[in-house]
Amino acid sequence: MRDMVEIGMGRTARRTYELDDIDIVPSRRTRSSKQVSLSWQLDAYRFEIPFLTHPTDALVSPEFAIQLGRLGGLGVINGEGLWARHTDVAAKIDQIVELVDKGSYERAIALLQELHAAPMQPDLLAAAVAQVRAAGVTVAVRVSPQNARALTPALVQAGIDLLVVHGTIISAEHVGDGEPLNLKTFIADLDVPVVAGGVSDHRTALHLMRTGAAGVIVGYGSTPGATTTGEVLGIGVPMATAIADAAAARRDYLDETGGRYVHVIADGQIANSGQLAKAIACGADAAMLGYPLAVAAEAPGRGWYWPSAAAHPSVPRGALLPVDDGWLDDAESGEFVRPSLERVLYGPSDDPFGSLNLVGGLRRSMAKAGYSDLKEFQKVGLSVRA
């Protein structure tokens, strides 16, 4: 039964829960973390860890996507970002970082908008795809619902393995100025699997599953201080409830189709391994990470993070957030030294708050609760904080 509360005469709202509102409750015998498997498979592609990247230029360059792929995850390139528009992306990001280092945040957002106003160059994006493909890792590219029809043919020809149709909030049919994008027809005509989102409720998740999507993204990458969708649009996604609702839609769709399984991917409010474990416990198969990976030395943002929505031409919904605060690796020089991506994922960690060794933290959480794989862990007990 849904927990409804009256917020005024004749107006009710549903009580919902964030990841920090719940806790995992171990209720089985514990096991060694070495007996825990984090592998999962999306369509024909198998991954050793359940991590995708939020498709932002602050995080994913072709080189970053290759490194994450070699470490077992999946890097998602922004098909409408800087790597699709400029030949000297590193220099452009240097300009952005120089502005924020000086405290000129508004000018940095304006520069992001200006850089994303440059025309897209299909050859540049094809070259980025080719670079990742040549490394032998799975290639995933994100497009918006508005531009999916125009950009996808060239991406398929370039050799992508997975297409991610991603927006702040999307539906099965996007109504724009031209012909609406019907995802069901769109996906049926493609030879590559599609992951689509974000969604925040059972009904929309079920609609997207019925389009034939291989995975559904829940949330919009909300990171306190970086994502400003709540301030700009008044929209909020309580991730614990949203993931659980999407998992319920997955069960309904599984019964409806007689066995077709659609993966639920959590995208938001995950900054440490504990929140990651809670997302899986609520029903997610994998997580789309942004801020937690941006601290890595390989991330092109150089210690700064911004979501892809920060570059919207007229309604930006993201700020630039430093990821260096609180870190001090070099005791002699007193300077911040960013850890490698491998260390962020696999440790070793000297951070007691779960921002390093994300894989180890998730493994140990599952082991302490007595579960050996991701699907089983979705059955773990949960409690709500008073």
How would you describe what is shown here?
The chain has a single domain (4-384), classed as Aldolase class I (TIM Barrel). The protein is an alpha/beta fold. The longest helix has 19 residues, at 239-257. Helix 10 (273-281) links the parallel strand 14 and strand 15. It contains 14 helices and 18 strands. Belongs to the IMPDH/GMPR family. This is GuaB3 family IMP dehydrogenase-related protein.
Overview in brief:
Residues 19-303 form the IMP dehydrogenase/GMP reductase domain. The chain is α/β, with parallel strands linked by helices and 386 residues long.
SSE topology:
Blueprint: E1 4-8, E2 11-14, E3 22-25, E4 40-42, E5 45-47, E6 51-53, H1 62-70, E7 76-78, H2 89-101, H3 105-116, H4 122-134, E8 140-143, H5 148-158, E9 162-166, E10 173-174, E11 181-182, H6 183-188, E12 194-199, H7 202-209, E13 215-222, H8 229-233, H9 239-257, E14 263-268, H10 273-281, E15 286-289, H11 291-294, E16 304-305, E17 321-322, H12 341-346, H13 358-369, H14 374-377, E18 381-384
Parallel strand pairs: 6-15, 7-8, 8-9, 9-12, 12-13, 13-14, 14-15
Antiparallel strand pairs: 1-2, 3-18, 4-5, 10-11, 16-17
Keywords: NAD, Oxidoreductase
GO molecular function, one term: IMP dehydrogenase activity
Family: Belongs to the IMPDH/GMPR family.
What are the main properties of this structure?
386 residues, alpha/beta, TIM Barrel, 8-stranded parallel sheet, two-stranded antiparallel ribbon, 34% helix, globular, Aldolase_TIM, oxidoreductase, IMP dehydrogenase activity
